[in-house]
């Protein structure tokens, strides 16, 4: 089992550039006086080869930020790039192809097909795209996630942790440039959740992947290299090489701030529903 990033030597997964970035990223739901600003002119860089966690109070914009960076939701203003490709303004077909070929996704819901076995679920996105997997890479992913003896099992024959490991393998199978994980341990017990976090950590350290994870759990965030804190649609702080204790202390300051009366409630929530692209969820 991997340990949190704070116990890893610095530079274990060396960065070699920027995996994704946003400038002036703004997302508004509604218009006029009833508009809710979910993201307020956010500038952010996601470093390649690192594990980044995104945290904040409910309604702070963390899931919206992930959805916009992943091309799952449209932006109201600003620009988003995946590598050197600007994704804002891409046509639906181009955006679908980009997400399929260059991004991996993990969500609270495992989204496994019950009639397919584990291996078939892992390779399903590539099968739909008519692409053959890189067998050497696929073997490495399967062995890293400890799924070798579960490949012929269907989801109903797997534990929750094993199902999420299959979902993790599916996200990794195409060797994407970036993996987005939205509350990936939200439906798991503590032991299974720790396993999945350990495998995400190993995906960065051993497989040179880039992971962005939205979470509300300080213990989960402690597995990352960097935590970005959002409040009222803005990035207000960050912590490098976090521990569960340091993250919890920072989150307590949000509770104090929210207990203080403010002059406006304009950004006190996010619009509900599933963003464009039809997948995902989690509290903003």
Explain what the structure shows.
It is globular and about 55 Å long. Residues 1-16 and 263-283 have low confidence and may be disordered. The chain has helices at 62-69, 92-102, 118-129, 135-144, 160-173, 190-205, 218-221, 244-259; strands at residues 18-29, 36-47, 51-55, 77-82, 85-86, 103-107, 178-182, 211-214, 226-231, 234-240. The two termini are 30 Å apart. The strands form two sheets. A six-stranded mixed β-sheet has the order 6-7-8-3-9-10, sandwiched between helices. The chain is built from eight helices and ten strands. The longest helix has 16 residues, at 190-205. With 284 residues, it is of the alpha/beta class. A hairpin with a 2-residue loop joins strand 9 and strand 10 (234-240). The protein has one domain (17-239, 246-259): Rossmann fold (3-Layer(aba) Sandwich), CATH 3.40.50.300.
Task: Give a count of the beta strands, DSSP E runs of length 2 or more.
Answer: 10
Residue fraction in strands: 15-25%
Order of helices and strands: EEEHEEHEHHHEHEHEEH
The structural class is alpha/beta
Separate helix tally: 8
Q: Give the overall average pLDDT.
A: 83
How many separate domains make up the residues?
1
Q: The biggest beta sheet, please? A: 6 strands, mixed
| CATH homologous superfamily placement | P-loop containing nucleotide triphosphate hydrolases
CATH topology call: Rossmann fold
Low-confidence stretches: 1-16, 263-283
Radius of gyration: 18 Å
CATH class: Alpha Beta
Write down the overall geometry. globular
Report how far apart the termini are.
30 Å
The helix fraction, in percent, is 25-40%
Strand order of the largest sheet: 6-7-8-3-9-10
CATH architecture: 3-Layer(aba) Sandwich
